[in-house]
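Hi U.,

Before I forget, here's the chain from the pilot set. I'm dumping it here mostly so it's searchable later in email.
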Amino acid sequence: MKVNRFIPALLLPLLLSGCGTLSGLFEEEVYEAPPSELTDYTPEFQAEVLWDKGAGDGAGETNNALGAWWQNDKVFAVDHEGEVHVFDASNGRRLWETELDQKVITGAGGGMNMVLVGTQKGDLIALNEEDGEELWRSRLTSEVLARPTAADGVVVVRTADGRVSGLASGSGEVQWSYQRSVPLLSLRGAGAPVIADDKVVAGYDNGKLVALSIIDGSVIWEKSVAVPRGRTELDRLVDIDADPVVINDTVYVVTYQGKAAGIDLNSGQTLWSRDMSSQAGLDAVYGDAVYMTDDEGNVWAVQDGSGDALWRQTRLVRRQVTGPAVAGDYVVVGDLEGYLHWIARDDGRFVSRQQITDAAIRSQPLVIDGVVYVTAVDGTVAAVQVPSP
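Structure:
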């Protein structure tokens, strides 16, 4: 999708920087096609909703995707005002809630028996997952744009100034940081750094993927997944805003206006790549297929190892579809009207559809132990059973 030919309505609020240069650029009214209507299909099952609960005000009037976090049989959700809610993953029973009194723009993260919440002011707050007691609070260099994670005694967090930092899990003290300059113009948001073995894998707004040592933040390798091209700053956007996915020493990554690729975790070597543009994200089954939602709303399956297209589901165009999540024999995506769509992994056909809420689902569904966890912008958190084959 060429940004200078078709500008999605949500693109302008998502621009992170350089907004002063955009004055007068879009004064001419541009027609925007409406979302695709839902089409008829033959349902093959109706998935059971195990529970659904409210977690505060959700995203409020923001466009933020505040996805839930699963940890130790609990589901953690935070709303845009910093109200944290924790549910028993098996039955939805509310275990505790607490107010941080700070605005947030990304979902909660965690690890090492902590709940981690980054704020718009640049604070990183660690809570005890059992009762919500605050363990520590650390002031970072700018707002937190992606969910923090923790492992091996280190909390890893990404901030808006292009910095990935490693903090001591016991105290919140910054141990190391790695920073790359942010381009003049970029999309608002960032993919969350992923901890894999002794590495931290992070994507940047210039299309580069980097692997850092979790011990000291030193660079292990760096790879250009996509190279900025074009005459204008808009043409040259190649942000990695979707979270990388690491499975069996392969890093799966996709950029905006660039490439989808499989990268070797240990060497940084490109195993395969193909042209693709996505902010929504991807999921994968190692050695089988990689599933992606492109920026028009098409859901793709491509062959792992070659990137060759297996199928493309085109009937969700302009429905602001989330990144896909693999759920058994299916992939699931949410949309702007609160529908959860089930798509067969073998051929891309629709097999089920259910409306979880009438509010948009913007965050990628989370699949854990045969259950799909869905978060909507009105604060709804729902657990849906994955059907048996």
